[in-house]
Amino acid sequence: MSTLAIDKAGPSRKVKYGSMSRDRTWALRWSYFFLVLFAIFFLTPPVYMLITSLKSSAEISAATNPWWVFHPTLSNYVELLTSNQFLRFFWNSSVVAIAVVIITMLISIPAAFALARMKFWGSATLATGVFLTYLIPDSLLFIPLFKMLAVFQDYTGITLLNRWYVLLFIYPTLTVPFCTWIMIGYFASIPKELDEAALIDGASWLQTLTRIFIPVALPGLIAATIFAFTVSWAQFLYPLVFTTSVDQFVLPVGITTTLIKGDVFNWGQIMTGALLGAAPPLVIYAFLMDYYIAGLTAGATKG
Amino acid sequence: MADVSLRKVIKRYDDVEAVRGIDLEISDHEFIVLVGPSGCGKSTTLRMIAGLEDISDGDILIGGDVVNDVPPKDRDIAMVFQNYALYPHMTVAENMSFGLRLKHYPKAEIKERVTEAARLLDITDLIDRKPKQLSGGQRQRVAMGRAIVRNPKVFLFDEPLSNLDAKLRVQMRIEIKKVHQKVRTTTVYVTHDQVEAMTLADRVVVMNKGRIEQIGTPNELYHKPATRFVAGFIGSPAMNFLPCRLEDVGGTLQIRLTDRIAFALPPARAARYNALPRTEKLLLGIRPEHLTESHAHLEPGVETFETVLDVTEPMGMETLVYFGLDGTPICGRVNPNAGAKDGSPMRLAMDLNNMHLLNEATGVVL
Amino acid sequence: MADVVVERGRVARAAGARKGTSLRNALGRKSTVAFFLTLPLILLIILLVLYPAFYSVYLATLNKAMTKFVGFGNFTFLFKRETFWMVVQQSCIFAITAVIFKALIGFIVAHFVHNIPAKGQRKWRGMLLVPWVIPPAMSTLAWLWLFDPSYSAFNYTLSFFGVGPIPWLGDTFWARFSVILVNVWYGAPFFMIMYLAALKSVPDQLYEAAAIDGANWWQRIWYVTLPMMRNIIAITTLFSLIVTFANFDIVRILTSGGPLDTTHLFATWAFQVGIQSNDIPLGACVSLFMVPILAVAAIFILRDVSKRGNEA
């Protein structure tokens, strides 16, 4: 009797185990299958950029298999990287992005410190205001800003329109609110006892900021820096509106306007330019992925 | 090193009074523990001494100087926080020396002081580690080291052991006591744990609802509590309180607990309570260790009664017994060999020589 | 004795008065410091965000030469133009469709990534976020090339299946489809990363409890995952709605609004009218039409974000 019962229980239990692990194996296979599909969808454009950038104009116009390079050449890269104009775009973009990062940090960090730690009249309203400002898109402000700059020029004689450095004033409107917002979150997550300990140790508020808060919130600072850099690097609408001379262009505007000559599209060069333009954010992303992602998700999870 | 005085110190948050007029004299070298339930104002008091909170009224003196408006860094105090508040990006040595470095002490002296403090706390090997690499107990030592290095007039501890597990807490408790014996700095220590208070303090300040209930040595608080709050707060398991009244039976003063149970008071107690009105509603306060199993040779003043146990908790060296008298839950401590069992009847002895009599309405111990 | 008492009282009063003023000074110092720390931020917001926003309203009430006040003239002019209503319609279709697909694809991909062993997740996540990292102006150029009328790599591939050639950007339907496709491609990874972060924050015990209660995988998603992620889904979706609604780069580079203005969004049309055709007031007027929907989305985001703040 007892042996019979064991006999019955044994196989049925085995079957159950088998089916569960088989379920899991299949779920895993399906996951990988779909992930490969989505990866193809997500990576096709950048891969296609790379493929095209390695082709000569002759190969492109021959309309052979577009997904394959038959005669790989670096001529597009050589041509662009020796073109003063392209290097000028790259230089403008770099200077603007780096300067904007510095300006953004100089504004955001003190403000976030004050908003996170010094409760003062209107501080809560200001914090909310900062967040709302972050939600105002560039496409709402480019026309009045354009007119403002024109009027400013008429009154003061200082030319800002069609100068690359005008972007140093404009880009912070896109970077400062978000960076302040996430820095408020990072600063607020520092235990209050830490600044009290610093206070008892004899630190002034400036020393508390520079020697305690900034080092402790360094991951947040890196995330904010990456955000400010990538936003400045990628911005397209403002430079398109505020700069018109070729020597004042930043990369996105330069590539989209100058490499397209009339109806002649030199696709090999355009793709090379686009790839080079995408390179700095991609490199930063590759090396600092965790900070990049922390910055992305911080907007909704912090503060 | 210095004495600390609090004179009619009041702390108001908007309309709420968190601390309602505290008077406290702490003498040099003394180890004072502020104890009480959460929200009793003990931490606020400590933070006012530290200068982290402004005081709403009254005066705080350190070493004879009024420090009401002196910022924390100039009060010459050091504080150890519950969550340690170590600077996570600095090594242990950097953490300990931060205050000295801010004050631009000579490098050699900083090194000497850090080494000395590390040796005292037995953390010399950890000096180059970051707080993240340390265990809770080690972090606690570093936090104390940071305080010692500065050689302040007063040490302030804000629930420093609450984040540690029970075993480590006992160990660190002894450690703190040892350190105090060596450095002899005036210390104010806040905790909600009455065992910590009793074991560490020269004098304990029991606080409740923003006021001081009683100040005294651990023994005074245990044996001569002034109020029902102190009587109930100090000691574990807590003191039992039974409604009772006094009555005169045949010339002797009796205390009646239930219709069934009444005991004649020992002569000393009878003399003490004789003047009380017989109609007054009273509480008998008796600690569990004074409710034991009955045996043959009872001392005078020890009275026995029969009860049925609800639950028993064997603790090893003793057994806690729980039962009810007229609906009041009572706890007693009996010998593990006395045969106490759940649901079984037992004869217990109450040592009336160690009883307390309280006024039920005011909570004052009579 | 009495003298002493009086003396004491005076000292106490003096001490009280001294404390009062210095406390006020301290408060004054603190808020003064805070004010100076936030001053650059306040100036930036006022001068370069708030002022232009109101200036835009003022501009919208001027005539083309900006010499005369015309009140709601520009608005009534727009209401009469067919193109305007087409832009309104296309902006809504574009934003809503794109956000729905971004949210769906993001959710599905996040689930698959969450499903695979933790060791490989980082690699996949890193790969799948690439579209979001490339500046949209750059990646849209690649799409433009993929959609090229004569050399389209898509049409080349489809021709093997006997499909096409598809006029990706030449025909109204396909052009609208294409701009949405590119936007979904660009934005879905953002949703994925947000969902993935949210999925990781759901405690495993909840799934185990649900499994013990006999829930199948679909019930686990419906009763455990979705409710736990509701807030982050709402925030991400609303945020994406704002960004998508105000999109400029993709449409500008891919179609410039064509064919026949059928793919214009508010932003690209405002650019064409205000900057390219030099009618600044009309351009300002067009972009102002974005405000209502942006405001509604912003209010809801603010509510959800502060709710999250309270939970934490």
From TrEMBL, chain A:
<feature type="domain" description="ABC transmembrane type-1">
    <location>
        <begin position="90"/>
        <end position="288"/>
    </location>
</feature>
<feature type="transmembrane region" description="Helical">
    <location>
        <begin position="164"/>
        <end position="188"/>
    </location>
</feature>
<dbReference type="InterPro" id="IPR000515">
    <property type="entry name" value="MetI-like"/>
</dbReference>
<dbReference type="InterPro" id="IPR035906">
    <property type="entry name" value="MetI-like_sf"/>
</dbReference>
<dbReference type="Pfam" id="PF00528">
    <property type="entry name" value="BPD_transp_1"/>
</dbReference>
<feature type="transmembrane region" description="Helical">
    <location>
        <begin position="89"/>
        <end position="114"/>
    </location>
</feature>
<feature type="transmembrane region" description="Helical">
    <location>
        <begin position="208"/>
        <end position="229"/>
    </location>
</feature>
<feature type="transmembrane region" description="Helical">
    <location>
        <begin position="120"/>
        <end position="143"/>
    </location>
</feature>
<comment type="similarity">
    <text>Belongs to the binding-protein-dependent transport system permease family.</text>
</comment>
<feature type="transmembrane region" description="Helical">
    <location>
        <begin position="267"/>
        <end position="288"/>
    </location>
</feature>
<keyword id="KW-1133">Transmembrane helix</keyword>
<dbReference type="GO" id="GO:0055085">
    <property type="term" value="P:transmembrane transport"/>
</dbReference>
<keyword id="KW-0472">Membrane</keyword>
<dbReference type="GO" id="GO:0005886">
    <property type="term" value="C:plasma membrane"/>
</dbReference>
<protein>
    <submittedName>
        <fullName>ABC transporter permease</fullName>
    </submittedName>
</protein>
From TrEMBL, chain B:
<comment type="similarity">
    <text>Belongs to the ABC transporter superfamily.</text>
</comment>
<dbReference type="GO" id="GO:0016887">
    <property type="term" value="F:ATP hydrolysis activity"/>
</dbReference>
<protein>
    <submittedName>
        <fullName>Sugar ABC transporter ATP-binding protein</fullName>
    </submittedName>
</protein>
<dbReference type="InterPro" id="IPR047641">
    <property type="entry name" value="ABC_transpr_MalK/UgpC-like"/>
</dbReference>
<dbReference type="Pfam" id="PF17912">
    <property type="entry name" value="OB_MalK"/>
</dbReference>
<comment type="function">
    <text>Involved in beta-(1--&gt;2)glucan export. Transmembrane domains (TMD) form a pore in the inner membrane and the ATP-binding domain (NBD) is responsible for energy generation.</text>
</comment>
<feature type="domain" description="ABC transporter">
    <location>
        <begin position="4"/>
        <end position="234"/>
    </location>
</feature>
<keyword id="KW-0813">Transport</keyword>
<dbReference type="Pfam" id="PF00005">
    <property type="entry name" value="ABC_tran"/>
</dbReference>
<dbReference type="GO" id="GO:0005524">
    <property type="term" value="F:ATP binding"/>
</dbReference>
<dbReference type="GO" id="GO:0055052">
    <property type="term" value="C:ATP-binding cassette (ABC) transporter complex, substrate-binding subunit-containing"/>
</dbReference>
<dbReference type="InterPro" id="IPR012340">
    <property type="entry name" value="NA-bd_OB-fold"/>
</dbReference>
<dbReference type="InterPro" id="IPR040582">
    <property type="entry name" value="OB_MalK-like"/>
</dbReference>
<keyword id="KW-0067">ATP-binding</keyword>
<dbReference type="InterPro" id="IPR027417">
    <property type="entry name" value="P-loop_NTPase"/>
</dbReference>
UniProtKB/TrEMBL annotation, chain C:
<feature type="transmembrane region" description="Helical">
    <location>
        <begin position="33"/>
        <end position="54"/>
    </location>
</feature>
<dbReference type="Pfam" id="PF00528">
    <property type="entry name" value="BPD_transp_1"/>
</dbReference>
<feature type="domain" description="ABC transmembrane type-1">
    <location>
        <begin position="88"/>
        <end position="303"/>
    </location>
</feature>
<dbReference type="GO" id="GO:0055085">
    <property type="term" value="P:transmembrane transport"/>
</dbReference>
<keyword id="KW-0812">Transmembrane</keyword>
<keyword id="KW-1133">Transmembrane helix</keyword>
<feature type="transmembrane region" description="Helical">
    <location>
        <begin position="126"/>
        <end position="146"/>
    </location>
</feature>
<keyword id="KW-0472">Membrane</keyword>
<feature type="transmembrane region" description="Helical">
    <location>
        <begin position="173"/>
        <end position="197"/>
    </location>
</feature>
<feature type="transmembrane region" description="Helical">
    <location>
        <begin position="232"/>
        <end position="254"/>
    </location>
</feature>
<dbReference type="InterPro" id="IPR000515">
    <property type="entry name" value="MetI-like"/>
</dbReference>
<feature type="transmembrane region" description="Helical">
    <location>
        <begin position="93"/>
        <end position="114"/>
    </location>
</feature>
<protein>
    <submittedName>
        <fullName>ABC transporter permease</fullName>
    </submittedName>
</protein>
<keyword id="KW-0813">Transport</keyword>
<keyword id="KW-1003">Cell membrane</keyword>
